[in-house]
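Hi, here's the filled form for the chain we discussed.

Project: internal
Contact: R.S.
Residues: 268
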Amino acid sequence: MRLVVDEPAFGTAPHPPFRRLSPHANAQVLNRVHAASEASVLLDDVIRQQYWQGVTLVSSFGADSAVLLHMIAQIDRATPVLFLETGMLFPETLAYQHELALRLGLTDVRLIRPDPDDLANEDPDGRLHAENTDGCCFIRKTLPLRRALEPFGAWITGRKRAQAATRAGLELFEEDRENGLLKVNPLAYWDSAMVRAYMSEHALPTHPLVARGYPSIGCMPCTTPVRPGEDPRAGRWRDSGKVECGIHFDGKKWVHKPVALGVVGSFP
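And the returned structure, exactly as it came back:
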């Protein structure tokens, strides 16, 4: 499998690592250091201090994404942003990504796409999502992101404890064992009211699907509106028992079913 990206892959980081600790050790130390830090302060430390060989934000440009993107733009607009363009996103998401990147002046947004060979071999008719949601996510999200993260030492996510029961124990910093990186969750303790307040204070545009009942937005075939009282992510892979796309690992186990695809063996 090869990385499919609209721009050249990110090369060697411009600064050497500030600390040569393992991702696990870094997570333990930084969870203590930033236990009471504001999200913007935490991000500033992560991006400016260069603890690792490069830091990137992985953004879905979804319902809450504008918050972290805005914070990062205030620190360094050249921070790499990885956007998984699966080929099955809502047109509204693609338009929102373009609008938000321009508005915030982000200069290094990278559209990460699935390998065309993987799609031709495993999903030639674009219907894999209806037969094997884990397999579809694997070739359209997990594999492309795994390769795109290779040049980096840490990645930032927008995950929050309030999003779902499976994220209730989320920490600000954690080890990404699958990729050997540090994972940073600056908004881990935020709730929807805090997100709305931040977006209102900074006059940030909302994703157009939010007003139509989509508090969590993924690929079009596998995302439905959420009913009152449901978890924000209840509309993702509804009634399938699936709760995550597969790019997140909780440190002990995958939070999706095993995937058996021929493409697995072709990944280096």
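Let me know if anything looks off before we file it.
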